[in-house]
Please model this.
Amino acid sequence: MILPIVGYGDPVLRKKAVEIPREYPNLNQIIADMFETMYNAYGVGLAAPQVGLAIRIFTIDTRPFSEDEDLSKEEQEKLSAFKKVFINPTMIKEEGEEWCFNEGCLSIPEVREDVYRHEKITIEYYDQEFNKHTEEYDGLIARVIQHEYDHLEGILFTDKLSQLKKRLITKKLQNIMEGKTRPDYKMKFVAKKGR
Model:
C-alpha cells in the first residue's frame, strides 16, 4: 500500500525514533509498504518517520543511481544491486574526507542543496529476519544511509546547510508546511491553510 509521505514541519520528523522488538506488529507489511511508497515517489531511501512512524527502520534501493554514466562499471553494479532494510541501526563510525553531493528529500519536495558528508561509515543493524550485521559502506551508498539514519535521529538535510542557504529556502519550506507544494506522489502536509 502506498502511504502518504509526511511533509516538512510535521513533528514526527523531529522525534528521535525508538527501537522496535522482533514481534513489532505488522512489521513485514510496514516494510513492504515503505518500499512501495519509496518506489512510487522515485526515491532511493525512505525512513519510517517519513510515513509517520517514529520507529528505527529505513529502506534503501540505490538502483536509480546506477544509471549515472559518469560512474565506473563496478560502482554502477554495486549501486544496482544494493537493496536493504535497516532495523534498529546504530552508526558506529563516520570517517574519511567529507564530500559534497546535491541532496533532496521526499519530505522536502522541490528543495535540493549541496550537503557534505563523510565518505565512509560503519553501521550496525538488524535485517528483516532480525539477524544482526555490522558493515562498512562508502560512496553514494554511505551517503544514502547517512541521510536516512539522520531521519531516525530527527535530523533533516536542511539542518546541515549554512544560515544563508537556510534563509534562501525559507519560502519553499513554508510552502511545504502549508501544502502549497505539488509533488507527483501522495503527501501529508502539517498545516494546509484555507482548505
Observations:
- The longest helix spans residues 27-40.
- The chain has one domain: 5-188.
- Residues 5-188 form a domain with the Peptide Deformylase fold (CATH 3.90.45.10).
